[in-house]
Amino acid sequence: MSEAERGVAVHATAIVVGEHGILIRGPAGAGKSSLGREILARAEGSGRFAALVSDDRVRLSATSGRVVASAPEAIAGLLEIRGVGLVRVPHEPAAVLRLVVDLDGAAPRMPEPAEQTVEIAGTRLPRVALRPGCGPDLVLWALRHHDDRFVTIP
After folding, report:
1. How many CA atoms lie within 13 A of 137 on its CB side?
2. How far is Cα 7 from Cα 61, in angstroms, rounded to an integer?
3. Taking every pair of C-alpha atoms in the chain, what is the biggest distance, in angstroms?
């Protein structure tokens, strides 16, 4: 079994909305957990299935040309709420990633095509770079439109 198949742990938050896994990356204190909670609440409030996969550490593995996110056993079902601590929440054991969100203070206004995807475990995934503190609406919009949202100006 290769390293990609076994999985590698990264500092991130992973959630699932419908059948779509979202990986939220960024430096410590950027708001990964908060953005994940906001997306979950917004999706659930609109009647869509949504659940935590993993918070703080996410195991990523390559399976049949897809990237699967899962929780390390020790933290499965735990979500950090700043000022409260760790709370137990309903969670899914794994999700196929469909979107990567990078919380980056230098998020470009008009990203180049090369910045709109990222390679993880040998698979290219749609990517959105956002400033920390950005709300969940843009992430949910990007998830709905990830296949047709990019326009290249000749």
Report:
1. 0
2. 4
3. 50
Contact 24, 32 (CB under 8 A): yes
pLDDT digits (tens, 9 = 90+) for 130-153: 888 777 887 887 777 665 444 333
pLDDT at 60: 97
Class of domain 3-97+105-144: alpha beta
Which residues contact residue 65 at a Cβ distance below 8 angstroms, ignoring those fewer than 6 apart? 123
pLDDT one-digit tens code per residue, 34-85 = 999 999 999 999 899 999 999 999 999 998 889 999 999 999 999 988 889 8
Domain ranges of the chain: 3-97+105-144
